[in-house]
């Protein structure tokens, strides 16, 4: 069971008779009228505020459109003014540049006239000095002096060396021929028979009466594949010998 605490103290009560407090239908009507009136009034105020806000927004939109048009016109006018100023500044700059170029041209023409008159006598002497100093070098002359002359001197030296070698070779050949002939003549002189011999004396060439004639034909030089010349020698040896006649002994 539910716990019920025990009573303490003494109960009190109040008696209310009918009509002492209030009648609901009678007392609540003014309150309802006030509430409904306030609600309707608030609704009307809100509707009016919405209409006013819509009108304000429309007015702002028209103002923005007008402001944008005015701003665009202002920008167009500013751009036109800026272009006009730039065009004026450009024209002034072109005029100044034209005047500057004209002055520079006049100065250059006057300077060229003065320089031409001054260099008329100075230029030949300067060119002559530079030419003597070696600044003006002929390409053909330089090529001939540096390349062709060196090659030509080398070829001349080689040709002269070949001529000297050929001359030495010819001298050596002639010397060997003379030595060989001398040995032959000495051998023939030693082989000569005595006076008491029964053999018939033969005619032998004597070294004292023999003459050797050497002829060198310079036009008959032949050149081999290596570039050396081979002189041809035409050697003619003429021998003249006397015969010893035998004498009869009594």
From TrEMBL:
Signal peptide (UniProt feature, chain positions): none
- Cite the residue spans of the region called Disordered: 189-250
User: According to its UniProt record, where is this protein mainly located?
Assistant: cytoplasm
A Pfam family found in this protein is Radial_spoke_3
Where does the record say this protein resides?
A: Cytoplasm, Cytoskeleton, Flagellum axoneme
**Taxonomically, which superkingdom?**
Eukaryota
Q: Which UniProt keywords apply?
A: Cell projection, Cilium, Coiled coil, Cytoplasm, Cytoskeleton, Flagellum, Phosphoprotein
Compositional bias of kind Basic and acidic residues: 227-250
Q: Which InterPro entries does the UniProt entry name for this protein?
A: Radial_spoke_3 (IPR009290)
Record's keyword annotation contains Phosphoprotein: yes
Please give an example of a GO cellular component term from this record: cilium
Q: Which residues form a coiled coil?
A: 56-98
Looking up PANTHER family in the UniProt record yields: FLAGELLAR RADIAL SPOKE PROTEIN 3, RADIAL SPOKE HEAD PROTEIN 3 HOMOLOG
> What family is this protein classified in?
Belongs to the flagellar radial spoke RSP3 family.
> What is the name of this protein?
Radial spoke head protein 3 homolog
Q: Which organism is it from?
A: Cuerna arida
Q: What is the lineage of its organism?
A: Eukaryota, Metazoa, Ecdysozoa, Arthropoda, Hexapoda
């Amino acid at each position: 069971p539910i716990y019920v605490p025990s009573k303490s103290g003494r109960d009190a009560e109040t008696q209310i008779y009918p009509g002492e407090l209030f009648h609901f239908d009678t007392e609540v009507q003014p309150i309802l009228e006030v509430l409904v009136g306030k609600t309707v009034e608030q609704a009307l105020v809100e509707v009016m505020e919405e209409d006013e806000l819509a009108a304000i927004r429309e007015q702002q939109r028209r103002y923005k459109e007008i402001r944008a048009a005015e701003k665009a016109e202002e920008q167009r006018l500013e751009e036109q003014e800026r272009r006009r100023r730039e065009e004026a500044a450009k024209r002034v700059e072109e005029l100044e540049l034209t005047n500057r170029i004209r002055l520079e041209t006049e100065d250059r023409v006057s300077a060229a006239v003065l320089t031409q008159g001054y260099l008329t006598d100075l230029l030949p002497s300067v060119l002559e000095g530079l030419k003597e100093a070696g600044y003006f070098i002929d390409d053909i002359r330089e090529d001939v002096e540096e390349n062709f002359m060196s090659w030509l001197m080398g070829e001349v030296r080689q040709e002269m060396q070949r001529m000297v070698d050929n001359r030495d070779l010819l001298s050596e050949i002639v010397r060997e021929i003379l030595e060989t002939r001398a040995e032959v003549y000495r051998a023939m002189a030693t082989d000569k028979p005595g006076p008491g011999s029964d053999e018939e004396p033969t005619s032998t060439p004597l070294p004292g009466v023999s003459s050797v004639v050497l002829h060198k034909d310079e036009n008959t030089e032949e050149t081999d594949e290596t570039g050396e010349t081979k002189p041809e020698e035409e050697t003619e040896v003429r021998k003249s010998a006397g015969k010893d006649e035998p004498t009869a002994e009594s």
